[in-house]
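Worked example

This section walks through a single chain of length 319. The input is the sequence exactly as stored; nothing has been trimmed or padded.
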Amino acid sequence: MPHFSSRIPSLFACNKPVLARLIAPVLFAFGLSACNTSPQQVTPSAAPAIPVAKTLKPLRIGLALGGGAARGFAHIGVIKALESQGINVDIVVGTSAGSVVGAMYAAGNNGFAMQKMALDMDEATISDWSLPLFSKSSGVLKGDALQAYVNRLVVQAPIEKLRKPFGAVATDLATGHAVLFQRGNTGAAVRASSAVPGVFQPVKINDRLYVDGGLVSPVPVRFAREMGADLIIAVNISSPPEALVSNATLDILLQTVAIMGQSINQFELKQAEIVIRPELPGMKGNDFNGRNLAILAGEKAAMALMPEIKQKIKAMQER
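Given that input, the structure is written out below as tokens.
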């Protein structure tokens, strides 16, 4: 009698309907058909969209620093505020007092270093009084000490070797045209830019005489644009004309320059994206004792406009 197990293969081999009935439930459980073994087509779900970051446009920021004698210490406060917010200035242009601070800044000094320089500065180091009694010159201050002081602060570097592109604006005495110094002796250019007529003697450079740039460009916005700035932050430290409390020659001369600069400023400042006006009530152009208050005023004025500054920088970068 044959063994039972030897009959199992033959049983299934000869009885196909039985085989189908036995395996159909198993195939059904796996979602298959005994007659159709092709794989199911699964539609993949859509991947979530990844936001594409905007490409930021390169932006060159220019700083135009205006004239105003001792009120120019406010420029240092503005620079301190910009640095504290990570705003890097690419181009610096200055007129008169603005050219002094601008040269120091372009040479690589930060706001805190310049503040220390300003507070340590002895007014006598930039005031080399000539003797009108023995001199045929038309000015009171020769300006040699100012030139030497600036050159010492920039380590004798010429303008084209400073760390940031820098320009100093002066007035050609023969033509009355504004001149932008971008090469040559840094101290001499700053001296020419600061040579208030009647206070400083005109400065001779390459056989031409130059005086204070504030006569033609009190806040040199247009020159910052010429040098390639896309966005310009202008700092206006000029004081509005007011009743004189002194008949001193220096006060009268500074008042005259302030009056001349008013109408020019109204036109030129419109070309700047940002205009910072430090509040310096009652501070005269010859008030070197108020330098610390001026620095604080500049810092405060810049911080007040910081949201607007950042918004305009962002908007221009995303264009």
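What to look for: The radius of gyration is 38 Å.
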